[in-house]
Design a protein that fits this description.
4-stranded mixed β-sheet; alpha/beta; globular; about 35% strand; about 130 residues
């Protein structure tokens, strides 16, 4: 399991922030079928990665969440790795809108296996200051 990414990272006072994760923090065992994994609720994943810390950055304009699949050997519900990142995008939108900021996100998935350096999933959140 990946450690909590933002625990020991110094958060910038302004600018952009990129977080690279693997999909372990996005999945959880299905209680009805322990060998099957399903999407973790977005709020739970946000807590796991301590994303609420980013909400305290006063002048942040962009947050990128890059996800790399490491779940190849586990069995999971179809699109389980996608539901949580898109839910995290919704979570960021809700959090920033509550603070009175205009925010939106774009989502992207890698559709080919040409470049393994590219993330499998990319969520980019844009915050208008």
């Amino acid at each position: 399991m990946q450690t909590r990414v933002l625990a020991d990272v110094q958060i910038p006072a302004k600018g952009n922030f990129t977080l690279s994760i693997d999909c372990d923090g996005l999945l959880m065992p299905d209680p009805n079928s322990p060998s099957m994994f399903k999407s973790k609720p977005a709020a739970e994943a946000a807590l796991y990665f301590r994303l609420e810390t980013l909400l305290t950055v006063p002048m942040i304009q962009q947050i990128k969440l890059k996800c790399f699949h490491v779940c190849g050997k586990v069995e999971f519900d179809e699109c389980a790795c996608l539901a949580t990142p898109w839910g995290i995008g919704d979570w960021f939108v809700d959090q920033y809108r509550q603070a009175g900021k205009y925010v939106y996100y774009k989502k992207w998935t890698r559709d080919s296996e040409k470049d393994w350096n590219d993330p499998d999933i990319l969520l980019t959140v844009f915050i208008d200051q």
